[in-house]
Design goal:
The chain is α+β, with helices and mostly antiparallel strands. It is built from 7 helices and 13 strands. The protein folds into 2 domains: about 30-130, no CATH class; about 135-305, no CATH class. The protein has helices at about 5-20, 30, 80-85, 110-125, 150-155, 160-165, 315-330; strands at about 35-40, 65, 75-80, 95-100, 105-110, 135-145, 170-180, 185-190, 225-235, 240-250, 260-270, 275-280, 295-305. The protein has a 5-stranded antiparallel β-sheet with strand order 1-5-4-3-2, with helices on both faces. It has a 4-stranded antiparallel β-sheet with strand order 7-6-13-12. It has a 4-stranded antiparallel β-sheet with strand order 8-9-10-11, with no helix packed on it.
Length: about 350
């Protein structure tokens, strides 16, 4: 008689227990995966008409909304409507706070929209935070190796090359270039008076990247020596560098009447204070084995170092930037209640 009531009570109790152990609903900002970034911008940027971006024009002078102040005396403004008119979409939890005294813009939004914000800011004021100078080295090395070694998989950095080559490592050519991010630069070393010999089949196949026929003999014009061209672009973090490079070297062949050429054109991405081997020859280009089972190979090593305008490396600049960003984020939210995680 009471069995149905017992079963009903059991069902209710089970439902209550299940509800108590259920995971809480995700917050809207968690679902949107919001990202907070800090942009260094002049306060005057918000009192001018910005250039068009993707056909949209932003008049920023009327887009400032002053926020409650805090004890630190910093002037804070809500400038989300300014970004919104340029196409930045707002999701729950998004905000854009301008710090007048610090000349900083703190933006919280989706990662996709952050890319657009970065374009808007850089288009208007060109005020990137990255270090300005890039030092690049290109060095061509010769070494003895096992005749049938898989050089493509084995050698990636100069440290690996040095360990593999041992005492057989020999520098054939080297170039150094210091230039600004986004600017192409070249370096050439020639031996114009050297007797010119016929050229053997040039080495034009890098292990990574794409060989370029147009790059060959542009820099040297038949003279012995080396030619290096690079166009580096520093990433937003001040650490990663995208590089378009062309390297050419014309060398006297060992034990032969023919000169040999190395010509490599490729694109690389390197971290600050690191190097990479984008090209390694298959060996035997000069026509003879060193000894049984051994052959001479050549490897091109590209190294990069990012330097700030005050002499600091990109790593030092990036570290200080992260510390400053954390302070600015706390300052931006000082008048808005508890800080957000």
């Amino acid at each position: 008689m009471h069995a149905p009531l017992v079963r009903l009570s059991a069902i209710i109790i089970f439902a209550l227990l299940a509800a108590s152990h259920a995971e809480p609903a995700s917050k809207p900002e968690e679902k949107a995966k919001l990202v907070t970034r800090v942009y260094r911008v002049p306060f005057s940027m918000f009192f001018s008409t910005l250039p068009e971006l993707d056909g949209k024009k932003t008049d920023s002078g009327t887009k400032l909304k002053e926020l409650p102040g805090a004890a630190d005396g910093e002037m804070r403004y809500d400038v989300w409507s300014f970004l919104e008119t340029s196409g930045v979409e707002k999701t729950p939890g998004s905000e854009a706070i301008l710090l007048k005294n610090s000349n900083a813009l703190v933006v919280t939004c989706s990662a996709e929209m952050q890319d657009l914000v970065e374009r808007i800011v850089s288009t208007d004021c060109g005020c990137g935070m990255v270090a300005k100078s890039v030092e690049t080295t290109a060095s061509l090395w010769e070494y003895e190796d096992d005749q049938f070694a898989d050089v493509i998989q084995r050698l990636h950095t100069f440290a690996e090359l040095r360990q593999r080559a041992g005492n057989s490592l020999k520098l054939l050519a080297s170039q150094f270039i210091a230039t600004k991010s986004g600017q192409r630069a070249t370096a050439v070393s020639k031996q114009p008076d050297a007797a010119r010999a016929p050229v053997a089949a040039p080495e034009t196949k890098p292990t990574t990247g794409t060989p370029s026929e147009t790059a060959s003999r542009i820099g040297l014009n038949g003279a012995r020596g080396s030619f290096f061209e690079v166009e580096p672009t520093i990433g937003p973090d001040g650490e990663m560098v995208d590089m378009a490079i062309s390297f050419e070297a014309r060398l006297r062949g060992a034990g032969t009447e023919h000169d040999t050429e190395v010509s490599v054109t490729t694109n690389l991405t390197l971290s600050n204070n690191h190097d990479m081997i984008p090209y390694c020859s298959h060996g035997g280009e000069d026509g003879a084995l060193v000894q049984k089972g051994k052959v001479k190979r050549r490897a091109l090593v590209i190294g990069v170092r990012v330097v700030g305008v005050d002499g600091r490396t990109g790593e030092e600049v990036a570290k200080q930037r992260r510390q400053e960003d954390e302070q600015l984020i706390r300052k931006a939210r000082a008048g808005l209640g508890a800080p957000k995680n």
